[in-house]
Amino acid sequence: MSRTFGLVGLPNAGKSTIFNALTLAGARVEAYPFCTIEPHHGVASVPDARLDQLHALFPEKRKVPTTIEVVDIAGLVEGASQGEGLGNQFLAEIRGVEAILHVVRCFEDPDVAHPMGSLDVRRDIRVVEGELLAKDRETLERRRERSAKAARTGDKAAQEEVALLDRLLEAVKRGKPIRALSFSSHDLPLLREISPLTAKPVLYVANVGDAGENELSQAVEEEARESGAGWIVIRGKLEAELGEACANEGERTAFLHEYGLAESALVRLVREAYRLLAVITFYTVEGPEVRAWTVPAGMRAPDAGAAIHTDFRDRFVLAEVMHLADLLAAGSEHALREGGKIRRAGREYTVQDGDVIHFISA
Ligand SMILES: Nc1nc2c(ncn2[C@@H]2O[C@H](COP(=O)(O)OP(=O)(O)OP(=O)(O)O)[C@@H](O)[C@H]2O)c(=O)[nH]1
Ligand SMILES: [Mg+2]
Fold first, then answer.
1. Among 154, 197, 281, 297, fewest CB within 10 Å belongs to which?
2. Cα first-last separation, the chain
């Protein structure tokens, strides 16, 4: 399953540029605001050095990395919720994503207009978050109207729903994102169903020019620390252009090194996003494939197995677990088995990042 991300930000912040840098999908990028009208969906394979190492032991098999899906929408402007600009109507497009990538303009360029006439990171963030809050308010109020009707007929579940919606609405009206509230497990199914935008984890993407970090990106970092969000600095234009100009990953890496970048934006973003979402990666070598999977951290073996096939949960017998480092040191699964270094794990086993697992079902 892909982890999914939605890009938001002011017009000309560089959302489509970042989208292209991540997915190499060639979305249209222009110096005028509202260049993006229809939402774009793009998928990127996640580069994974551990998967490469594992694959090197089984070169005859196909390598299947995990993927991320990114949605690029129109820019948001102040008042979008009252019909200004284009963005608000497309916010619903990102209702299904797991996390928000909030692109903040941190580059100076007189040829690229700023919709508010000046560079101000904190104001820009407030404006965009204000629009997400406004969209949530709209969604929640509509939902509340419906459940209030049912509640009046004495429907107990609807009454509970109204109480929760009132709590959410109260926060949103005060400008507080829903992710800042805490919930009981009882509330979670409804929350998941409504999927408010401000309940999603946020990763700020400071889009800087070719020179890299600057005062503006530092302000983004401070904002992120204060609100418990993630953040990452990306030289969006540079990375998008390199992605387009380079024929292969090796060439791209060489260019990135020249600019003093050890890793691509995609690699860094995925690492930060996986941390924010608290997901881990495990590996399987089955049939013709060497494959990476992402699951929430803390998952027991049968539930992790269900990511592959529900039989591995419903008819779980055991999981044979190898550490990648042991496997690489032994040189083959056979040698590892001979050395007695394959762990036979039961249904209580918590899958660890980097495990190589054979699931065995009845
Ligand atoms: N100088 C400079 N220009 C950039 C950078 N990133 C993006 N741009 C330029 O800024 C302009 C807007 O970029 P887009 O990626 O289209 O911005 P957007 O946020 O998708 O804009 P809308 O779709 O209009 O909401 C384009 O001309 C980009 O080439 C950067 O790091 N430095
Ligand atoms: Mg765009």
1. 154
2. 24
Identify which of 95, 94, 65, 73 has the alpha carbon closest to the alpha carbon of residue 1: 65
**Distance from Cα 74 to the centre of ligand 2, integer Å:** 6
Q: Please give the structure tokens belonging to residue 27.
A: 């979305």
Dig out the tokens for 34 from the structure: 């509202």
Residues paired with residue 282 on neighbouring β-strands, in sequence order: 293
Backbone angles phi, psi at 283, to 5 degrees: -130, 150
Atom 24 (ligand 1) nearest CA: 34
Q: List, in order, residues 6 or more apart from 201 with CB less than 8 Å away.
A: 98, 99, 100, 179, 229, 230, 276, 277
pLDDT value at residue 27? 62
Place of tokens 């990028």: 29
Pocket flag, ligand 1, residue 75 (CB < 6 Å): yes
Q: What is the pLDDT of residues 71-89, one digit of tens each?
A: 998 888 777 666 655 656 6
Q: What is the pLDDT of residue 252?
A: 81
Q: Is 209 in the pocket of ligand 1 (CB under 6 A)?
A: yes
Give the ligand 1 atom nearest the CA of 108.
1
11 lines ligand 1 (CB under 6 A): yes
Q: Tokens 């540079």: give the residue.
A: 238
Nearest by Cα to 36 from 66, 3, 8: 8
pLDDT tens digits, one per residue of 107-128: 999 999 898 889 999 999 999 9
**Do residues 81 and 51 lie in contact, with contact meaning Cβ atoms separated by under 8 Å?**
no
The whole-number pLDDT of residue 80 equals 61
- Other Cβ atoms less than 10 A from the Cβ of 331: the count is 10
Check: CB of residue 281 under 8 Å from CB of residue 66.
yes
205 within 8 A of 128, measured Cβ to Cβ: no
Give residue 85's pLDDT: 58
The ranges of the chain with pLDDT < 70 are 1, 25-28, 30-31, 33-37, 80-89
- In the chain, the domains with their CATH numbers are 3-36+73-139+194-275 (3.40.50.300), 279-361 (3.10.20.30)
The full length of the chain comes to: 362
What are 64's two structure tokens? 């299947």
